Amino acid sequence: MAKQTMKVLSGMRPSQVDEMIRTYDLNMIQTREGLVYFEGELEDLRSATKHVVDVVLPPGPTVTEIKETVAKYEIELKKSDDGPMFHGTLYEINEAINYMVDLMRERLDM
Questions:
Q1: 69: Cβ–Cβ under 8 A, 6 or more apart, which residues?
Q2: What span, in angstroms and rounded, lies between the C-alpha atoms of 51 and 31?
Q3: Are 39 and 28 in contact (CB under 8 A)?
Q4: How do residues 88-108 score in pLDDT, each as one tens digit?
Q5: Bridge partners of residue 88, in order along the sequence
Q6: Is 58 helix (H, G, I), strand (E, B) or coil?
Q7: Roughly how many angstroms between the first and final C-alpha of the chain, as a whole number?
Q8: What CA–CA distance (Å, rounded) separates 40 from 61?
Q9: Which element (helix H / strand E) includes 28?
């Protein structure tokens, strides 16, 4: 069966990446451009999207953008030594980060 890929979210803790690799029997691959992906069977990747993770937010979003994003998706905002983090399923956090990037893009395009 053909292997599928799913992007590893920037800001994930290495211990969580290792846990997902072990739990869902995934591999990790890196492209020439430096992007990192999980690789595995489709059903394993689907299961992995439900895995609960913490993702450190990148610099740039405003407090308002973060609050709007948390309100729209089933995620929580947590504090850490590394900065604010989203806590939730991999799928929800991926959607939330994409939404927040769109909000920042709109703000910067004005």
A1: 61, 75, 96, 99, 100, 103
A2: 24
A3: yes
A4: 999 999 999 999 999 999 988
A5: 53
A6: coil
A7: 47
A8: 32
A9: strand 27-30
